[in-house]
Design goal:
By secondary structure, the chain is an alpha/beta fold. It folds into 2 domains: 4-124, 2-Layer Sandwich (TATA-Binding Protein); 133-319 and 365-376, Rossmann fold, CATH 3.40.50.300. The protein is 35% helix and 24% strand. The chain has 14 helices and 13 strands. The chain has helices at 27-43, 59-63, 110-124, 158-161, 167-177, 198-209, 221-226, 230-237, 262-266, 269-278, 321-330, 343-351, 353-363, 367-376, and strands at 4-6, 47-54, 67-73, 79-85, 91-97, 100-107, 133-141, 146-154, 187-192, 213-218, 246-251, 287-293, 310-316. The strands form 2 sheets. A 7-stranded mixed β-sheet has the order 8-7-10-11-12-9-13. A 6-stranded antiparallel β-sheet has the order 1-2-6-5-4-3, with helices on both faces. A hairpin with a 2-residue loop joins strand 5 and strand 6. Helix 12 (343-351) packs antiparallel against helix 13 (353-363). The chain is elongated.
Length: 377
């Protein structure tokens, strides 16, 4: 991925690279970047190349890539920021953590900068996750913008879980999953009671779209849409070097942002959301927004569901009795139900009380819990 720019231009904003932590508030935290910038200016290096990719770069690995000037890392070396001088004479700032690497290269020619990027990518990159896992960027508000962490999470293909959805819901999901690079409609709404399988469908969608669309889970949607612009711009300009790639912003359980009284409750959050979907903020960014909510359709704002704005508006429902009983029979539990039954309740009914707690928890396992288990594991 070639992302080369001339640093003498002042008319363009380049996306920040690497895992944004914004811990550079003290002089010690700022030293690697400060030394890098000082040397770039001192040597008059006019060409900057940037790249970001899946990879790792501990101090021992970096020591084989060039001469280390300064390295800042945490206790386990899970997060590393380093400034080093490469044998070619180029300068490199490397920022890595949570499985992703961001690099900035300064050199005296465009070709030298590009060559250094390719060399470091070969030295630091790692393979994409296994086919049954997907890479998700988890975003939260930092001190002066967006703070991002990456994690690989399990994601089954939709064909493996399709029978966990009533026929009408399954057909709507299949149409959405088959979408590639939508021509119109940037907003996806998923509505339904808890336990109807929205989160598992989210994982399957992210897996199906992975070749052309990256998944970004927003942990604090109210912060993204309610405070300033730095956080929003960081999210919208992430991976901008790959202009053909789309991004999917996932706002889970965020129904209050699109409720009928959203403007009274959340202020300008709804307006900013719609601006990203089809206004100036979203123009040229190839951004899709997926909102899940437990709210019924009657409580949602009409503007969020306007024709042409929604790529898909899917209601996740309970199984009708006939389909519920077919599901139970397929899972070896012939005892029928007489009422519409949600997926989580079907698992509980089929597995019995002793297993039901685990089964229901698995069905409702969300993206936020995935990140929390990673951080606390």
């Amino acid at each position: 991925m070639d992302a080369c720019v001339n640093n003498t231009r002042s008319d363009r904003r380049v996306a920040a690279i690497g895992p944004r932590r914004h811990t550079r508030g003290t002089s010690l935290d700022a030293l690697p970047r400060a030394l890098f910038v000082a040397d770039v200016l001192k040597r008059g290096l006019a060409h900057i190349a940037r790249d970001q990719f899946r990879g790792v770069s501990g101090p021992d690995v970096l020591d084989r890539c060039g001469t280390l000037v300064l390295v800042r890392c945490d206790r386990e070396a899970a997060e590393v920021e380093a400034y080093l001088r490469l044998p070619s004479g180029a300068l490199a700032l490397i920022d890595t953590g949570y499985g992703h690497v961001g690099i900035e290269i300064a050199a005296n020619t465009h070709q030298a900068a590009r060559t250094a990027v390719e060399q470091l990518r070969r030295a630091l990159a790692v393979d994409e996750p296994a086919s049954d896992r997907i890479s998700v960027a988890f975003w939260m508000r930092g001190a002066s913008g967006g703070d991002v962490r990456h994690r690989d999470i399990d994601a089954a293909p939709f064909v493996a879980i399709a029978q966990n959805y009533p026929r009408r819901v399954r057909a709507a999901l299949e149409r959405l999953i088959a979408t590639t690079a939508p021509e119109r409609g940037r907003l996806v709404l998923w509505r339904g009671e808890p336990g109807t399988g929205k989160t598992h469908a989210l994982r399957a969608l992210a897996r199906a779209w992975a070749p052309w669309c990256s998944a970004h889970f927003i942990m604090d949607a109210e912060e993204l849409l309610g405070h300033g612009g730095a956080y929003m711009l960081d999210v919208l300009t992430w991976e901008q070097a790959d202009e053909e790639r789309w991004r999917l912003l996932i706002l889970e359980d965020a129904g209050e942002l699109i409720s009928a009284d959203a403007r009274a409750v959340t202020g300008q959050a709804l307006s900013r959301l719609l601006n990203v979907a089809d206004g100036l903020l979203g123009q040229g960014t190839r951004t899709l927004i997926l909102i899940t909510t437990n709210e019924p359709v009657g409580r949602l704002h009409a503007a969020a569901r306007r024709p042409g704005r929604c790529l898909a508006d899917i209601e996740f429902t309970a199984f009708p009795p006939a389909e519920a009983n077919a599901w139970l029979a397929a899972h070896g539990h012939p005892e029928p139900v007489r009422n519409p039954t949600a997926l989580a309740d079907l698992y509980a009914h089929a597995c019995g009380t002793a297993v039901a707690t685990h089964a229901v928890a698995d069905v409702r396992f969300g993206f936020a819990q995935a990140l929390n288990s990673h951080n606390n594991g």
